[in-house]
Write a structure and sequence with these properties.
single chain, 403 residues, alpha+beta, 17 strands
């Protein structure tokens, strides 16, 4: 006889009782659903159930005008080899919420068991580590959510194609390395060689996929904005001739994916989890007023027409086609599809070492020393860089573009 329903182990209920009775302000619990059917379908069912519960919480809060109702907690859900992994932080409404999840899964035809989960952490690079990074903004459209809130929304098909290419690039590290995935607050956890992670990388929140061995590593990062894909390499890949090959390899990725991108840049740094090239990156010399002021993702919503800074290698999409590049220090390669690859002729000056020493925390200071090559590049490339007033001149309203 086929078993039906979803069971929860006594160990889970005991952990919940202990958490609710304790005095930890942010207690959490990790669980694993081992479904009897398709794991991907079970993961989708969990996401749908949680969406319904969150919507019901909002309706009740609005009906009662009580926004202090016990929270269902912060759920992070990801498919792993063994099943569907849950991490729940501050679940005030437990155990009722878990009971609701079980009921919702059973209504959707899911059966299996939920138990505690204590995975062995996987090997992955630390947040701050010497690296070479390539940041790619995917084609899409800019939308204005509120008067001061613009956002770039990636084309879903193009976004998935770029993520899949990034996964393949990371997989080139070979079978004899340790692969790891982190999705939002879950992980990093081990991934088998050849196991696809494209869909999981595209889950909401920050996602990181890495390939690590004793001497070098590769990484793919999708920041929370979900319209940027970043590649990074580190370890012995940054020494001698290997560094030149690493720069060439990332440059080749910009060429390969160029038609799916509106902007891209390569830089040397050490802040692995930053959005490379973003205005607040810790490992890059601050350029004053390098992006418009606005709420949420506005700072990065105009990279299809204005770059945040000068970099040693940049891909310029159709939004830059009307601006010429001056200076003998630069080579310009026409990639087709109204895209150009802009490269500085002295790559060693840009990539042999980080502009900001590893561990230097003064990068938010606008007086941080700027290397001569970067200072010259900022002057030479001013036509493609964001400066206050350029968006207003282009007809964009509602932005505070500095005084």
């Amino acid at each position: 006889m086929t078993q039906t329903g979803v069971t929860v182990t006594e160990a889970v209920w005991a952990a919940i009782r202990k958490g609710l009775a304790g005095d930890e302000p942010e207690w959490s619990i990790e669980m694993l659903l081992r479904p009897r059917g398709d794991v991907a379908e079970a993961a989708a069912a969990v996401t749908a159930v949680l969406s319904d519960l969150q919507a019901a919480w909002g309706r009740e809060a609005e009906r009662t005008d009580n926004w202090e109702l016990p929270s269902i907690g912060e759920w992070a859900v990801v498919q792993v080899a063994e099943g569907v992994r849950f991490q729940v932080i501050e679940p005030e409404a437990f155990p009722g919420t878990l009971e609701n999840v079980v009921e919702g899964l059973e209504r959707r035809g899911v059966s299996g068991g939920i138990g505690l989960y204590r995975p062995t952490p996987a090997e992955a690079p630390p947040p701050y580590v010497d690296l070479l990074a390539c940041r790619m903004r995917v084609i899409g459209e800019r939308v204005q959510r509120e008067p001061t809130f613009y956002r770039w929304i990636a084309n879903p098909d193009a976004h998935k194609a770029v993520v899949a290419a990034a996964e393949r690039w990371c997989g080139r590290a070979g079978p004899d390395v340790s692969y790891a995935l982190q999705v939002d607050t879950i992980g990093p956890f081990t991934i088998a060689p050849g196991e696809s992670v494209t869909d999981r990388l595209m889950e909401p929140g920050r996602s990181v996929f890495t390939a690590t061995d004793e001497h070098r590593w590769r990484g793919v990062q999708l920041p929370p904005s979900a319209d940027v894909v970043a590649l990074a390499v580190g370890g012995e890949a940054l020494s001698g001739d290997q560094l030149r090959r690493a720069v060439d390899d990332l440059t080749a990725m910009l060429r390969e994916l160029g038609r799916l991108l509106v902007y891209g840049a390569i830089r040397r740094g050490w802040d692995f989890l930053s959005d490379p090239g973003a205005a607040d990156a810790l490992d890059w010399p601050k350029r004053p007023r390098s992006s418009p002021r606005g709420s949420k993702f506005t700072q990065e919503a105009f990279e299809d027409i204005f770059a945040p800074d000068a970099f040693g290698v940049q891909l310029l999409g159709p939004g830059y086609a009307d601006r010429a590049i001056a200076g003998d220090e630069w080579s310009v390669e026409n990639l087709g599809h109204d895209r150009r690859l802009l490269s500085h002729r002295d790559r060693a000056a840009w990539f042999d070492a980080p502009f900001v020493p590893l561990g230097d925390w003064h990068t938010r200071n606008e007086d941080h020393p700027t290397p001569d090559v970067l200072g010259r590049a900022r002057r030479q490339l001013e036509p493609i860089l964001y400066v206050p007033g350029v968006l207003a001149a282009a007809g964009y309203t509602g932005l505070d573009e500095w005084e």
